[in-house]
Design brief:
- The chain is of the alpha/beta class and 475 residues long.
- The chain has 2 domains: 190 residues, no CATH class; 276 residues, Rossmann fold, CATH 3.40.50.300.
- The chain has a 7-stranded mixed β-sheet with strand order 2-3-4-1-5-6-7, sandwiched between helices.
- It is elongated, with a radius of gyration of 29 Å.
Length: 475
Amino acid sequence: MGALAGDRRRDAAFLLASVAVILVTAWPLSGMVISAWETEGAVYTLVHSVFRATGWDINLVVVVPAGVVLGWLLLFGLDQSKRIQAGILAVAAVPFAAALWARGVWFVPWLSLSPFLLLGLLVGLLSGSIDKILFGLRRREFPLAVRALYVTTLAALVVGFVDLQTTTSVPLTQTAVQAGSILVFGGLFSGFVQYTDRQDILVVTPSGHRDSETVLLCGLYDSAKTAFDTYIVSGGTELNEARAQLTHDGDVDPLSSTVEFRFKPSGPLDRWTSVTADGYDVQTLYSDEIDRALDRLRPSSSVFETLRRWLSANLPVVGGGRDLTRRLETADLVLLVVPLSDPSLSRALAGEDLEDATAPGYLETYYELCAAAGGDSNVLVVATDADRATERYARTRDTEVDLGAARPDNYGQFQFELREWLNQVVADDDAAKLPDVGERSPFPCSVVPISREHADSERNQLVANADELLEALRS
């Protein structure tokens, strides 16, 4: 199971738990707010005093805020990142409406006051989208509306709780239930309003091979752009120039700056996924930094260990470290680029006798990272210039594998033998040979081969097998 697929399963469990928690807490919280109003405490007295002094219709205290909240809810429902959360919040409105109906309070002449309802709705829509109006933000997200809804809801609950406690005598058990419900509901709702809730993929590339990193990014971006909602965060000019180069002559210039793009599938539980590359090279890390990265990738054995790692990754004083170290600690998925155009690897793939050859240093570190991750799927090797490996496969198997085709029949066997070969490079420092059948041991994490040479223009491919890489990230 891929790292991102695992996140979708966790999201599904979280959403199901959210529905259950909201249904359990919404009824007592709704009753609490209504009771606070009915006891005519400080809030009730203040509101009535203001409306008497101004001569306004007291029903406006319900109608206008209802319009504002409705506007925020509409934007919440239209938010491309929050549709499911908006549906869950709508579930919470059902017990509240039922409590209003059962208690017979807050019934107002909605029809005659509909202009004020529309005014409130307009205020809600404008206040929740003012950032998009002023700054021209194109993505369909409304963080102001979502956060305003959160703050307003939580404030109403806290004020209602305090007002009820100070106005009337509430049994201790009921007080505990109400306080606990506010904490649970508020904590749950706070997770709904986060806009940093995305999955981060870090691309790690050996020094001197950013052209291979460029090919990976071009292929992955093009495949994601074809299938999903996609946008470029940084390095767009370079990325688009590289894509144009691949289209015309198949060669690309290495990237010279940070490139980041994001994509989001249309599934209700899919989150935005960020892919970042900045020429990160594990060979620049010191041994203690590698140890920290390995520690991050190993499955945690306890809740306390999970907490310690979280603190290490999120608190500067505890975490520290350079940029690459921090990125390795916090990334949801790490893509390790193995350029098969590397002289020692390409000569071995061509069948040269390399008895004195040694594995590239980065490959040994990759092996350690993959082995530390174990059966987890948060590390993936991407073998670029894989046409060199397909040529070797054709010689040894007397059959060809076309990476430009829609998953050829022998792709699985080719992929597994490539993993075996990489393992042998590290294990024996002898890339010219493969162990006999029955003695094979694959590289400790999955390997996805991609190739610009195999790209099929009729299928609008920039990089062959990039679709398979995208699927490997999500499956």
